[in-house]
Every structure is written in structure tokens, then in C-alpha cells.
User: Fold this.
Amino acid sequence: MKKLLTGLACLVALSASAQNREITFKDADWKTQLATAKKENKLIFFDAYTSWCGPCKMMAKDVFTKDSVADLFNNTFLNVKYDMEKGEGPALKDKFGVSAFPTYLFINGDGEVVHKIVGSMPAAEFMEEAGKALKPESTAFGLAKKFNNGDHSEATAVAYMEALEKAYEADKMGAVAKVYFDGLPKSALIEGNNWNLALKYLNNPSSQAFAYLYANKAELEKKYGADKVNMYFERTLNSSVYAVKSAYQKKNNLKEAKEIMAAIRKLQAKPTANAVNMLAQLDLIEFASANQWDKFCAKVDGVLSDANFPRKPGFVVTAANDVVTAAPVKYSDEAIKWANQLEKGTPDPFTNIQLADLRKRIFKKQGKTAEAEAMAAKAQDLRKEASKKGQMTPPMMKD
Assistant:
């Protein structure tokens, strides 16, 4: 028994000592890292993180410290990491279009991204994804070359769209889906395989295929169920409005955004509840982009006076926050007026928190520090109260 216990103790000790490797990151400026990668003929593994990112910390603690992960990365890649909010981080964030954390990039010595991973995942999946960087033809960047050179086969298109989805490249995925699905015979779009692929990847309302599916919604409902079909169209249209708004705010991909906006207006010509809300959002996007804040405010006033306007509180709160963010300070009084009108309607706890956050932002913009602090405290108290009751709370808006 004594020998057995001694043997077990040795095994435990050996196991503990073996499991102590982790990914080794090299410290240097970005120019030096590129030069080193080129000289050593290695890909750079680039960890784009922030100090406040929970999933980033989890990956660093639980995945990067696995021996199997450490051995793969230390023997294969030049490993670097940059805080996206410090030093060279912000410039590199813009250079590589990092918009979510964690983002992991695999970059060659010429500074070209050959693979991209977004989000946290178990060690085995992380290693599998990293392995794709060594086979560029299987990555979004390698598949892009095949697709853009005319290979629009289902195998290539689906692999490419799947890779873009994993890389959180929804806009690019939509553009690829538009080309692929618009190239199919229209009658084939309603078939099971193509419909299931459309559900997953076709997110661009300016696509001819999407318009055809929307026009044949009744047939789709009979074949696949009304709930599933309507959820797909509503989700796609609503997310497209959000994408259009983002494009206008960033002044990026405006040509495509205008095409999507025109397509949504055409598809939503019939005055359904969802259409009324969506078209009003598009109006506000156009007014804000043209700095036509008087028209913007008049539109919101009209919504507030419309007893039948759907999902009014969310629409008005969003519009008011847009005014605080982008309009001249004189329009802040309009946002206060809207908040007061919403409050008279005895809003739910979620909306009450949004209104407190909104007033905090308005007062801060107006230079009313004491009032802003009071509203921040109120919002915090409301969040604590809602949390105790198990109620959902809205994310905090930036000042």
C-alpha cells in the first residue's frame, strides 16, 4: 500500500509539473513584430484584447495555459498581444477592423490577415480554428480568392459564408450571400436545402433572391411554418436597419447602405406594425445623416402623438439618445421633453432605467453636473431594484 501511495503521489507531482506551460507572447512594437515574422517565416498570432473583457481573461487563464495549446502556438506562431485601448492598440484596432473582443488574428510577415477568430471557445475548438491558419485555402481570406475568381459553387460559397459568420463579418457574409443566392434559379430558392441556407446566411434585403422569397412568403409559410418564416424576415429586416444606421454614422459603405434602405422601403410598402416602426427609423437615419434635426424632432413628436405607433418607448428612447450623441446641444431640451412625455405613460422598469440613463446623458451634455450625478445614482438604484426582482435591465449608454 505504501508503494502504491508513493507511486500515485509521483504521478500527481509529474502531472502538476507537466501542466505548467502557456502561450509565450513577444513584447515589441508592431513594425518589429512584422520584421521578425518575415525573417522567421512565421505567421503572427495576434491577441486583440481589452483590460475589461471577461472572455479575454477567461481565454488567457483557462485556454492559453493548456499544454497542448501552448505547445502548438509556441512552436508554430510568433505570438503577440496588444491592449486595444493602450499604446499602439487603438491604431492597430482601426487598421485591422477589430470590433469585438476577444479577436484573434493570424497575420503573415507582409501584414496580411490570413485568418480571424472572434470570441471565446474551448481549447480543442481554439486549436482546430488556429490550425486553419496554416491552410489558407480553408480560411475566409483564402476562400475569398476562390469566390472572387468566379468559383460560386455551393461548396465554396457555403464554406466562405460559414467562415465569415465565425469571423463576425456579417456585412461581408451578406454581400457573398447576395451574389450566391441571386445566381440560383428563383424557383429553386424555395426548396428545402436552399431555404435552410437562406435562413442562415441571406441577410441582405437588396438581394433579388430575398425579394423573391418575401414575395412568396405565403408559400413558404405553408411549407415551413408561419412562425419560422415571419421570424426570419422580421429579424433580417430589423438587423438590416441597424446595419444601415451604423453605415451612415460611420460614413462607410454608403452605396450599399442606400441600396438596402431603398429595398426595405419597397418591401415594407404595406403598412404593417413592423413596417411603420422600421420606416420611421429609416426616416430618422436620413434626417440625422443630413443634420436635419428639426425634421428629426418633428418626426419623433409625430410618433409620440400617434396612439397606435408600435414599440413606441424603445423608438423614442433611441431617438433621444441619438439627439444627445450627435445633435447640437440646443436640441437636448427636445430629448428632455420626450422623456417627460414617456414618463407620463407609467413606463415599465426597463424603460424607467433607460429614461434615467438618458437624463443623465442630457444633463452631462448641458453641463449640469449635479443633475447628471443625481440621475446616475437613480439609474443605479433602479438597476439594483430590478436585479433583485430578476428583471432584465438595459445596457448602460456611454456619456
